Amino acid sequence: MTSSALKGTCKRSVCGTLNEILRVKSSSALETKAIGQRLGSLLHGGDVVLLIGDLGMGKTAITSGIAVGMGISQRVASPTFVMVREYFGSFRLVHCDLYRIDTTRGVDFDDLELFDEDSVTVVEWADLCLWQFDDFDPLVILFANGADEDSRSITFTENNSRWNERFLKF
Amino acid sequence: MKNLILGIETSCDDTALGVVDSGGIVLSSVIASQIDIHSNFGGVVPELASRAHEAVIIEVLERVLKEAGLNAQSCGLDAIAVTKGPGLAGSLMVGVAVAKALSLGWRIPLIGVNHLEGHIFALSLEGRLMHFPMAVLVVSGGHTMIVRVNSLGSYEILGETLDDAAGEAFDKVARFMGLGFPGGPEIEKVATNGDPSAIRFPIAKVDRRFDFSFSGPKTAVVNYLRSNPGVSVEDVAASFQASIVETLVAKTMDAAISTNCVSIGLSGGVGANSLLRERLLAAGSVAGLEVVLPAKVNCTDNGAMIAQAGRFRLETFGADDYGLDVEASLRL
C-alpha cells in the first residue's frame, strides 16, 4: 500500500468502531516494556500500531519493549522532537510521534516512507487523525490510569478481526 | 582575507543560516522558526517540517547574506557547511540540497556536519577558547548527553538520556500546565514567582552513572498536577525546573571531575535556561573548573555553529563530494 492511500477523505473515526481484543494491567513502566516485548515478537512487516494515551502513560515504554521483541538492540528514545526514528531488527521499526504537530486536519505523510511491507510502524499521538490509518487495519492500543499512580490499564483494540487471531499467542 | 563560511541548519524546526569568519566571529545569523512560519502563513495545512523549510530557506539565505554584507551574485563566501544529521530526513534534505546547489553555483567547497558536533563548536564562537579535555553538556529538545571532548574531533559520549530529552520534558510539562510553546522559556518565566523547594519531585535512577532519564520525572509532575488540582502553578514550575537543573548540573560535574576534564561547556536549547547557566557556573567555580557558556542565541540551533564546525572539518579532513547524503540517525 502506498502512503498516498492515507490521503483518503474518509472521516470515519477508527475509534468509534474499535473492538476490544485484550485488556491487561501493568504496574510499572518496566512491566509495560515487557508487555511491549511480547507484542513485538508477534509483529511483522506492514503492521501499523497506534498508541493512544495521555502524557506518561507508557507509549514510549511499550515501544521500547516492541523494539526488544523485534530483535533490536539499539535503545529506543523518545521521537517527539525529531518526529520519526527508525531502527532495524527482524523488520524495520518506524517510531513516529505526532505530539508536536497540529493533526486536526490530518497529516500529510507523503514522501516520508513511513509505511511499507517490510516495516512495523508505531505512531504516538495519532488521536485526532485516526481516520487516516483506516486502510492499514491498525492495532490500536489504549492506555488509561490504573488503581495507583504507577499502574496502567492497557487495552488492545482493532476495527476488524485481523489482529484477534494473532493475539491467541499473546 | 576573512575566509567566510556559510552554515546551514535544518535538522529540526528551525531554518537557521549563519556566516562566520576565520576568527569564529558571527557576521550574521538568521533563524526562522516554524512557529513564525505557521503564524505568517495564517495557520497552514499541518504537515511535517520539510515543506516549511523549503518555504523559507531562500528568504533566510538572502537575509543572512545581506546582513553579512554579501550578495548572491558575487558570493564572497569561501565554503558552505550543512547539517547532514541527526534529524528528520526530509528536513535535512532541504538543507543539503540547497547547500549542494550553492556549492556548485558558487564553486566553493561543501562540508557535511554532524549537528551534535555543531553544538560543541558553538562553544568556540565569538573567539572563545576551549581547553581540553572538556566535558560538554548538550541539552535540548531532542538531545541530552554529556560528551567528553578530548580534543577537537575526538569525542566520547559519557552519558545520555535513556528516554525523553530534558527540553522535551520541559515542553510536555508546560503544555500539560497550559503554558505556551516552547515550554522551557515558559516554565522559566512562571518559575520566577514560585518556590523551588515547595515540591520534591523524584530524580530517576539509572544504571549507568552519567545517563539521564526524564520520562519518570515528567510523569511524576503530571501525576502531581492531577492529584493536586489547586496547587500553585508557579511552585510546580519552579520545583520541576530546579529538579531538572539539579540533575543536569550534578551529573555534568561528576562526569567532568571523574574523567579529569579541565573545563565544562554547555550547549543546546536548554543551555539558554538562566538557572542552569547560573548553577553550572557556580558548581564549576566551586570545583575550580572553567565553565564556558555560549551566548543564549548560540545555544539554540543556529547556522553559525554549523559553519564553525564545518571550518574545522574542512581544514582537517577536506571537503565532501556531491555524494553527500543525509544521515537521520547519525551519532557523534
From TrEMBL, chain A:
<keyword id="KW-0547">Nucleotide-binding</keyword>
<dbReference type="GO" id="GO:0005737">
    <property type="term" value="C:cytoplasm"/>
</dbReference>
<dbReference type="GO" id="GO:0046872">
    <property type="term" value="F:metal ion binding"/>
</dbReference>
<keyword id="KW-0460">Magnesium</keyword>
<dbReference type="InterPro" id="IPR027417">
    <property type="entry name" value="P-loop_NTPase"/>
</dbReference>
<dbReference type="InterPro" id="IPR003442">
    <property type="entry name" value="T6A_TsaE"/>
</dbReference>
<keyword id="KW-0819">tRNA processing</keyword>
<keyword id="KW-0963">Cytoplasm</keyword>
<comment type="similarity">
    <text>Belongs to the TsaE family.</text>
</comment>
<protein>
    <recommendedName>
        <fullName>tRNA threonylcarbamoyladenosine biosynthesis protein TsaE</fullName>
    </recommendedName>
</protein>
<dbReference type="GO" id="GO:0005524">
    <property type="term" value="F:ATP binding"/>
</dbReference>
<keyword id="KW-0479">Metal-binding</keyword>
<dbReference type="Pfam" id="PF02367">
    <property type="entry name" value="TsaE"/>
</dbReference>
<dbReference type="GO" id="GO:0002949">
    <property type="term" value="P:tRNA threonylcarbamoyladenosine modification"/>
</dbReference>
<keyword id="KW-0067">ATP-binding</keyword>
<comment type="function">
    <text>Required for the formation of a threonylcarbamoyl group on adenosine at position 37 (t(6)A37) in tRNAs that read codons beginning with adenine. Is involved in the transfer of the threonylcarbamoyl moiety of threonylcarbamoyl-AMP (TC-AMP) to the N6 group of A37, together with TsaD and TsaB. TsaE seems to play an indirect role in the t(6)A biosynthesis pathway, possibly in regulating the core enzymatic function of TsaD.</text>
</comment>
From TrEMBL, chain B:
<dbReference type="GO" id="GO:0005506">
    <property type="term" value="F:iron ion binding"/>
</dbReference>
<dbReference type="InterPro" id="IPR043129">
    <property type="entry name" value="ATPase_NBD"/>
</dbReference>
<feature type="binding site">
    <location>
        <position position="184"/>
    </location>
    <ligand>
        <name>substrate</name>
    </ligand>
</feature>
<keyword id="KW-0012">Acyltransferase</keyword>
<dbReference type="InterPro" id="IPR017861">
    <property type="entry name" value="KAE1/TsaD"/>
</dbReference>
<protein>
    <recommendedName>
        <fullName>tRNA N6-adenosine threonylcarbamoyltransferase</fullName>
        <ecNumber>2.3.1.234</ecNumber>
    </recommendedName>
</protein>
<feature type="binding site">
    <location>
        <position position="115"/>
    </location>
    <ligand>
        <name>Fe cation</name>
    </ligand>
</feature>
<keyword id="KW-0479">Metal-binding</keyword>
<keyword id="KW-0819">tRNA processing</keyword>
<dbReference type="GO" id="GO:0061711">
    <property type="term" value="F:tRNA N(6)-L-threonylcarbamoyladenine synthase activity"/>
</dbReference>
<feature type="binding site">
    <location>
        <position position="188"/>
    </location>
    <ligand>
        <name>substrate</name>
    </ligand>
</feature>
<dbReference type="GO" id="GO:0002949">
    <property type="term" value="P:tRNA threonylcarbamoyladenosine modification"/>
</dbReference>
<keyword id="KW-0408">Iron</keyword>
<feature type="binding site">
    <location>
        <position position="171"/>
    </location>
    <ligand>
        <name>substrate</name>
    </ligand>
</feature>
<dbReference type="InterPro" id="IPR000905">
    <property type="entry name" value="Gcp-like_dom"/>
</dbReference>
<dbReference type="InterPro" id="IPR017860">
    <property type="entry name" value="Peptidase_M22_CS"/>
</dbReference>
<keyword id="KW-0963">Cytoplasm</keyword>
<dbReference type="Pfam" id="PF00814">
    <property type="entry name" value="TsaD"/>
</dbReference>
<feature type="binding site">
    <location>
        <begin position="138"/>
        <end position="142"/>
    </location>
    <ligand>
        <name>substrate</name>
    </ligand>
</feature>
<keyword id="KW-0808">Transferase</keyword>
<comment type="function">
    <text>Required for the formation of a threonylcarbamoyl group on adenosine at position 37 (t(6)A37) in tRNAs that read codons beginning with adenine. Is involved in the transfer of the threonylcarbamoyl moiety of threonylcarbamoyl-AMP (TC-AMP) to the N6 group of A37, together with TsaE and TsaB. TsaD likely plays a direct catalytic role in this reaction.</text>
</comment>
<feature type="binding site">
    <location>
        <position position="273"/>
    </location>
    <ligand>
        <name>substrate</name>
    </ligand>
</feature>
